[in-house]
Amino acid sequence: MIRIITAYGAGLLFGLGLVVSQMISPAKVLAFLDVAGNWDPSLAVVLFASVFVAAVGYPIVLKGKAPLFDEKFRLPEKQDIDRKLLTGAGIFGIGWGLSGYCPGPALTAISLAEPKTGLFLLAMAAGWGGTRLITGQR
Amino acid sequence: MENFTPVAALAGGAMIGFAAVLFMWLNGRIAGVSSIVGGLIIPDKANLPWRAAFIIGLISAPILYGFFGGPVTASIPHSSLLMLAGGLLVGIGTQLGSGCTSGHGVCGVSRFSMRSVAATFTFLATGILTVFLVRHLLGWG
User: Fold this and answer.
1) ipTM above 0.85?
2) Which domain holds residue B118?
3) Are residues B110 and A55, on separate chains, in Cβ contact within 8 Å?
């Protein structure tokens, strides 16, 4: 039960960060990606600040033997930079540039009830499910 | 650059980073939105509740902010067709590439994972190229 509450809290804080930084607005994200237009560097500052805090915090937390509410830390094990990773990241970037949304902000923006957010999320779910079925991943 | 909001970006970014550290400290997991939601679509029962709770946390953020902070607005300048195509590619790409802006960009880069650094530079590059193509060459934006 406690793990559900802490997951809710982490999601809430994460979402509040997206709201405060205005990253839930595709216009703001697109203004960063539009380097030849009226450029807005805000997204770079958001990324820098979040990476800085996590780069300081992770090593402190990971010094412990285990997380507070689970048996062990679960970190990604893969190390290799393969074609699948780069193809996927490349395709993701194209979708990000077409829409101005990535998964976190799009989900966070559900309550704003924009029909276009709904379209994006439905298409995203279809892309996810379809890829999983085809590649046979869990 | 008159639309640059450095203070809000620093504050919001720090909150996102803190949320990622908190999630590792308490639950021992990476705060990667695409993998957390991915596990909901083809669900495994044991991990369903915390995944759902994280997403409900995300969704409740603008609602709570609206109560105590101020109005939350988002503007979506691109057409419905671009949102559909974008969503499909984001779904395919994050699944193939095992992550998105949060998992690779925030959590991976801050752990100095070269895999995540490579992914982050790749999606930043294709994102910037796509916006250039859409807005300046095709004039759709």
Assistant:
1) yes
2) 77-141
3) yes
